[in-house]
Amino acid sequence: MFSDTTPEAEQVQIELLRKATVAERIARVRSLSALAISLSRRAIARANPEMTPEEVNLKFVELHYGKRLAEELREYLKVN
Predict the structure, then answer these.
(1) Distance CA 20, CA 14 (A)
(2) What is the value of pTM for the model shown?
(3) Distance (Å, whole) CA 43 – CA 22
(4) Is the pLDDT of residue 43 over 80?
(5) Apex 32 CA angle, 19 and 16, nearest 5
(6) What residues contact 15, with CB distance under 8 A and at least 6 apart?
(7) DSSP conformational letter for 5
(8) What are the C-alpha distances in Å from 37 to residues 19, 40, 41, 59?
(9) Contact by Cβ (8 Å): 21, 29
(10) What is the spatial distance between Cα 71 and Cα 12, in angstroms, rounded to a whole number?
(11) 2, 32, 61, 77: which sits with the fewest CB atoms below 10 Å from its CB?
């Protein structure tokens, strides 16, 4: 596997993770998840500049959770 992290830096990262509390680990996971979602939405918006923010969010749902759920959400949003 290719990595831009030196073995020494990787060892430091591993040690920091080992020393982290459960709450700190969960916070990191939540932060990384939020970042991944944000980057995904940004990529959709960049690839489809004509889309409104709502359309970008619906496309995100379609790509990550399936077309059926996105269609149901779209219908729900029309009603409410």
Answers:
(1) 10
(2) 0.76
(3) 32
(4) yes
(5) 15
(6) none
(7) S
(8) 27, 5, 6, 12
(9) no
(10) 46
(11) 2
Read off the pLDDT band of 1 (50, 70, 90).
low
Average pLDDT over residues 13-37: 96
Average pLDDT of span 9-16: 94
Between CA 78 and CA 80 the distance in angstroms is: 6
What percentage of residues in the chain have a pLDDT greater than 90? Answer: 92
pLDDT number for residue 20: 96
Contacts of 37 (CB under 8 A, 6+ apart): 60
Q: Which of 49, 45, 79, 78 is nearest to 63 (CA)?
A: 45
35-39: long-range pairs with CB below 8 Å, 24+:
none
Q: Give the Cα separation of 66 and 75 in Å (integer).
A: 15
